[in-house]
Amino acid sequence: MRRFYTTVFLLLVFSACAIAQPCFNSGTGLDGSYSAAVNTTIAGGTYNFSSFNIDAGVTVTVTGTQPLIIYCTGVVTINGTLSANGGNGADGITYVSGGTGGIGVAGGANGGDGSFSSPSGPLVGIDGNGPGGANNHGAGWSGGGGGGYGTIGGASGGVGGFSGPVYGDANISALETGSGGGGGSGGYDCGAGGGGAGGGIIAIYTGTGVNIGVSGMISANGGNGGSDGTGNCGGGGGGSGGSIILASPSVTNNGVLSCTGGLGGGSAVPGSPYYGDGGTGGLGRIRIDYNGSIAGAGTSNPPANTNTPVPGIAIITASASPNDSVCSGQQVTLSGGGGVSYGWTGGVMDAVAFTPGGTMTYTVTGTDGNGCTNTNSITVTVLPTPTVGYTVSPNDSVCPGTPITLTGNGASNYSWSGGITNGQPFTPGSSTTYTVTGTSAEGCTNTATAPIVVNPLPNVTLGNDIVQPNPPALLDAGAGFASYLWNTSETTQTISVTSNGTYVVTVTNVEGCTDMDTIQVNFTAEITNPNGLETVIQLYPNPSSGSISLNIQNIEADMISIDIMDLTGKVAYHQWMGISGNELSKTFDLHHLSNGVYILRVSANGASHSLRFIISK
């Protein structure tokens, strides 16, 4: 039976992406710090690290089809291994199948499959992918061709494998992937080996430095070709080496840089013309750009193509004034530094004040005098404005002389107009609107106003004390008050009294403020002197700080009664005293009494006289 095979392969080409590096670019650092302490993988792609480190004895393997491109604002330190090696081709299996081509990573192209046929032969292998992968498959009964950069190895005899075409240049003017090795030729139940994959692409750009330790390695080697199993057909060709680019002001290599081609797969039965080993893959490329120093006792295979000097790196700074944390509604000015021109994201103009609408990260792209560009970023945090309020105790409408307490809320610190201390009682002298300024923990402020009303006091007067021969007496507190309360428990504007005594009324206006007055009612004559002399009664000092003196002259009586009471009629002092010589002098110690208005009443011969005095300590 004759079998026919159709093979489709994908050609991966990265040569369209120019990588000329006139200036070092360390990126933004937004991806943070990378540190590998155990074996791990990293997906191909572009990264912006702030530092990059691989510990000794640790291998970091690149995965995926994309080149690994690292920008780093800090130092790159590799004491372990960073690998983007192409996969090996699989061995062919006699009587079963040809080996499949190796799989490339980080842009490395796949190897071609080895051929197999049971009843017929010879069948040519499949070309490897990539720009150097064409025409490098096994032919006839030869081994597979070597791939990459035009460097090939022949079969051990006979026709030999095809070579791959030359591509790229030593300076890696474009991102150049390693090409896959061709598959071996097989047939008549002999399974040829698959080609190895090309090495991938590793590019590292930093404005600080690259240090490769004695145990460090960066490798982008081609994969090995697979063997022909136990048959007598062809082994697969090795994939070519990939590309390594290091661009840094200083590079120290005490380890290994390697972009070698993979080895061709073996043939179980040596000799020609029907069988043979696969060809070796071509070398890749290594390029180092620097403008400071390149040092170290490490190796580079192939030898690195070095470019020096290059202009260097634009060190661009980003700053905010007055601060990168501002209060809502406050303006901020962003300024770039280290260059001669700057462009900002977010519509921001360099060194021009604006009002940010919210927290946002802004990126500046600066260009220095050498024409080198770089970026930096700054996050402007917009702090919230506190919602300031207040509480008032006991009320925002009070009577004269009533203390109140104003206490701010919604912030961390408070200052009040009018010399008020937050949370401390004070007595407002008149109706006033007070303003509180609250400051948050972040320093943002807001205000609130507190209108305080000081209501007028009512003014009540009962008139002069009443002395009349007979009851009743009509006492009138006056109209216009909201309520009345007499010490007789009556609640009317007027009352009629029939007994001697001190009468007190307390009135309240519509605002709740109170006033009181007292009146002395006597239904007998005033104290009289039988000899017709005028009795003189003196009380001093008035007001008193607690001690008060009574002096009576020209009184005709054997005994007099002294009563001291408050305005409610509560008696604080009572004593009968004898009179000698028609005169009396007495000092009373009243320090135990509270501040207020009191009445001293002198009674003799069935009549009495009252004097009002004030204690103010």
Outline the structure in words.
This protein is an all-beta fold. The chain folds into five domains: 30-310, no CATH class; 319-383, no CATH class; 389-454, no CATH class; 456-523, Sandwich (Immunoglobulin-like), CATH 2.60.40; 527-617, Macroglobulin (MG2) domain (Immunoglobulin-like, Sandwich). The strands form ten sheets. Strands 2, 4, 6, 7, 9, 10, 12, 13, 15 and 16 form a ten-stranded parallel β-sheet that branches. The chain has a six-stranded parallel β-sheet with strand order 1-3-5-8-11-14, with no helix packed on it. It has a four-stranded mixed β-sheet with strand order 18-22-21-20, with no helix packed on it.
What's this entry about, in short?
The chain has about 625 residues and is an all-beta fold. It has no helices and 42 strands. It folds into five domains: about 30-310, no CATH class; about 320-385, no CATH class; about 390-455, no CATH class; about 455-525, Immunoglobulin-like (Sandwich); about 525-615, Immunoglobulin-like.
Salient structural properties:
617 residues; 5 domains; 42 strands; rod-shaped
What helical percentage do the residues reach? under 10%
Unreliable spans: 1-21
How many whole angstroms does the radius of gyration measure? Answer: 54 Å
Number of strands: 42
Main beta sheet strand tally, sense and closure? 10 strands, parallel
Shape: rod-shaped
CA-to-CA gap between the ends? 131 Å
Query: How large is the share of residues in beta strands?
Result: 35-45%
Structural domains: how many: 5
Mean pLDDT: 87
Structural class: mainly beta
Tally of helical segments: 0
